[in-house]
Design goal:
Layout lengths: L2 E7 L3 E7 L3 E5 L5 H10 L2 E6 L5 H4 L2 H7 L3 E5 L9 E3 L4 E4 L2 E7 L8 E5 L2 E5 L2 E2 L2 E2 L7 H12 L6 E4 L4 H11 L4 H15 L7 E2 H7 L8 H8 L8 H13 L3
Helix pairs in contact: 4-9, 5-6, 8-9
Bound molecules: zinc ion.
Length: 252
Amino acid sequence: MIEISFVSAFKDNYIWLLSDGQRAFVVDPGDAAPVIARLDALGLSLAGILITHHHADHQGGIAALLQRWQPVVFAPASESITGCTHPLAGGECIDVLGQSIDVLAVPGHTLGHLAYSLPGALFCGDTLFGAGCGRLFEGTPAQMADSLERLAALPDDTLIYCAHEYTEANLRFAQALEPGSPVLAARCARVADLRSAGLPSVPSTLAEEKATNPFLRCDDPALIAVAQANAAVNAEKVSVFTTLRGMRNNFQ
Ligand SMILES: [Zn+2]
């Protein structure tokens, strides 16, 4: 049985920690020090690392972790990742602490971006966030829209373990798009309660994201109307997504 917890890093990163009670995997260790401190405190040894993409705040801690342990490092084959032992392209099934994990290619934020899926849980890096999605640094809007659509096809009760605490800012944008939405108001209230208690707003469930995340709702008539009032060339999902993502980039 795998237990999932998190290690906070930098300003708003979550490094997810998977443990079977003796060994651990971490997802996107951007910083080694807090990971080493937590593993030592729990008496765990690091068996492996899962990397979603190459950005420094997701892989910057690998070198120091490799000095302490000899973990396997699963990472995108097409990106430059420190110490990668198992290059992945998506479509593989890997073993993590005795659990099968599906590797999904989700290009958009970066071109080699991977997500790791097991029953009930998704580690999606900077692709899908609480009420938002990652910026398009390398991929096209069409690639990101397609990646998000494939994540949205997972079971509704899947917990979404994203890599950043961005939910409140994302909800402000979602509410600007749909000011009267009671579903959004309810999620805002839940998230505000969690954050003011010093708790993370993640993981959310996929069902919650499908109900409130504008980037998973590009076929919703209300959002199509907003997008078409803001330069979307047509009502197709990709066009709506492109427009909403552009509006998010400029949203303060
Ligand atoms: Zn990133």
